[in-house]
Amino acid sequence: TVSAREAAKFAALAGEWWDPAGPFAPLHAMNPVRCRFLRSALCVAFGRDTAQPRPLAGLRLLDIGCGGGLLAESLARMGAHVTGIDVNEGGIATAQAHAALDPDLAGCLHYRTASAEQLVAAGECFDAVVASEVIEHVASVPAFCAALAALTRPGGGVALSTLNRTPRSYLAAVLVAEHVLRWVPPGTHEWERFVTPQELAMQMEESGGGGGGAPLRLRLLAGMEYDPLSGRWDLGRDTAVNYIAFFDKPAA
């Protein structure tokens, strides 16, 4: 499911992942709200207490398209054993170098240059799989969803965040973010590749047919809403631009 053209866009920016004012500034700003959703969804799915300082302790998580490790590090700090994969060697090198600065991450955070399909072929499986801001860049959405299902153990879950394909998302993510405010380089997003929540749910329902066993079922859906006045993101009901979803895989 790797798109060479899409991968090349991020390879050119590999050294700038941890610059909060650089091309990945929107992801830095979005990360706290992504983590809040994931913390809650994973704790509900696995019977954990969100009030604990390391509520995800013992869970094996896979972060697909981890880039420089913004989200993977946050999940590891919640106690999870996290494997981050990306097809861009530069991004993985950046992630490894940044993680090495924090000795608390040693042993619980590992990075590999690999695709989802390579892990499927190796027979690897995880308690939960995360693919944040990735699915809009893959070559085949159905094949990618099948890989997500195959990498998730029975009783586990999958979380995705992405952009909806609506007129508002074209205005916000393409025209404003790329061409007016220059938050991200022009050409980062292709509106036609955005996936609606309905399309995503349908593909997940069909994901079991690709060798992943039971299909993935939608359990939680929330909008990720940006407030331009405060510059902050929050969770809400408006999924017209950004949204995040959690799917579970029935136990065998």
From TrEMBL:
Keywords: Methyltransferase, S-adenosyl-L-methionine, Transferase, Ubiquinone biosynthesis. Residues 62-158 form the Methyltransferase type domain. Transmembrane segments: none annotated. InterPro entries: Methyltransf_11, SAM-dependent_MTases_sf, UbiG_MeTrfase. GO terms for cellular component: mitochondrion. GO terms for biological process: methylation. GO terms for molecular function: 3-demethylubiquinol 3-O-methyltransferase activity; polyprenyldihydroxybenzoate methyltransferase activity. SUPFAM superfamilies: S-adenosyl-L-methionine-dependent methyltransferases. HAMAP family: UbiG. This is Methyltransferase type 11 domain-containing protein. It comes from Chlorella variabilis.
